[in-house]
Amino acid sequence: MALTREExxxxxxxxxxxxxxxxxxxxxxxxxxxxxxxxxxxQLDTADIPPTETALSVTRAPLRxxxxxxTLSPAEALHNAPARAxxxxxxxxxx
Amino acid sequence: MPNSLPDLTIHAALAQLHxxxxxxxxxxxxxxxxxxxxxxxxxxxxxxxPEGALKQAAAADARYAAGERAPLLGIPLALKDNLSTRxxxxxxxxxxxxxxxxxxxxxxxxxxxxxxxxxxxxxxxDEFAMGSSTENSAFFPTHNPWDxxxxxxxxxxGSAAAVAAGEALGALGSDxxxxxxxxxxxxxxxxxxxxxxxxxxxxxxxxxxxxxxVGPLTRDVTDAALLLNVLAGHDPRDGTSHTGALPxxxxxxxxxxxxxxxxxxANALIAGxxxxxxxxxxxxxxxxxxxxxxxxxxxxxxxxxxxxxxxLIAPAExxxxxxxxxxxxxxxxxxxxxxxxxxxxxxxxxxxxxVKRRIMLGTYALxxxxxDDYYRKAQQVRTLIRQDFERAFAEVDLxxxxxxxxxxxxxxxxxxxxxxxxxxxxxxxxQAIAGLPxxxxxxxxxxxxxxxxxxxxxxxxxxARLLQAAYAYEQATAWHRRHPEFxxxxxxxxSS
Lengths: 95, 496
Prior knowledge:
The complex is a heterodimer. By secondary structure, chain A is mainly alpha-helical. Chain A is 35% helix and 4% strand. In chain A, a hairpin with a 2-residue loop joins strand 1 (84-85) and strand 2. The mean pLDDT of chain A is 90. By secondary structure, chain B is of the alpha/beta class. Chain B contains 16 helices and eleven strands. Chain B has helices at residues 10-19, 24-42, 50-65, 107-114, 157-164, 181-187, 221-231, 275-290, 306-321, 339-350, 353-366, 372-393, 418-422, 429-434, 463-475, 486-495, and strands spanning 45-48, 76-80, 118-123, 170-175, 190-193, 213-218, 261-265, 294-298, 398-402, 438-445, 451-457.
């Protein structure tokens, strides 16, 4: 299953990854090889097989009691932000 | 004369600390001296906190003097750098998280601290735990203490190399498809992946949430049981955390395997397995039979599809988990005029090649038009793989195979071929896909003196059975008592 250059660019856009020309060419080749390997799964008949979403072998954990707990202060929450002002994260305009 | 304190097992060190023959300060200082002597060659650590470690050691000594006891009081340990540590840099081996200081401790870190352990620092890893050699670290590769020209395995390669070289008495890693067991095998130590849900994932930076598990790396099986006792248990902060009562895992450590049925899959010793590895595993099976176990041939018909299944499911989950790295709230930020451009450029510059490759693969497997063919198909095959194990465990108590098809390979040898690198995980993926517990223990050395690992897998929550068999095998052999020669020549040079 060979991916086209356009498909690679479409996936990169979906994944919000800015790629160089060299990376586009490299991933086109490598992802095609990996997907060709994975194509072996298509030969298995899984028509009546339910999907496994999680490896949980026990019942799902119960919700904890709805009791307030100590949480991060605004200063702690903002501590790692590359840009911050007036108690907020700062980012460029969306348009 | 080299100092052997850093090569003590955790249980041996605890005995000396309890009797007063050893102080936590002397032990911690000896380990820090070892790190100073060897880590410029091994490069196991990304972050080291000598002052903090010695402070914790002094506090532990004060507690011992006051008659206090705790399960790991005064034991110096290392943590893989994807485990959140309050106030200590946590990079996940990635530029995108360089200088990130978590405001909280992962539950496993809090549990170790509560048990009295001393945190030495954070160990190197493949970026976001994606890799099998630790060469995908954004910072530098780690070297195998048994041969510095070779990889330590991965992705918990820093933790494995640190334990093998006496740069910590034990360490934590994480295992998504073999990342605790494979480096343990390549570094000649013990690595345990517990049942999915047994150890909390809270504060473990997510890679593939349905597969990720924290696990201990130690010098012997007794130490693995000691750490599991501290780490396992329900955590309300992890929605997949197991809620049931748990045994004392050290109680399982006895050497009688009579009546135990051990299954060997038909493909365990296939052509791709290095001859020395196959030979060591065959010898181990004879040893297990001599200990009273019955060796049974079993069939896991869908095992051959584990690699493809894993490399669709794990990247798909990773592509969703890693969407949070946007350059706004923490970590690396690229400059751009608009938010969209900032996010794409931050991710393009901040993630390394393997992480981008897997995000792309996962995004593709989840995208419109391909979801059913790739992601859903892989989840269905995951069911088939689980059912194979369920059928097998109706007949046998444990399943044994090699941990890795080869011993440690040379640095750089597989970097250009992702599929070849993925094959390093051939024998560790299926158990992870099925959520089973598995352990790697040393079972020999090849002609170059490189360690070989033997893997046991058990049904869900049967860690006690797993540890029992691993312990019985270990006690009947001497493989786990060897240490890499290089650490002593290094220490000799430093003190002369």
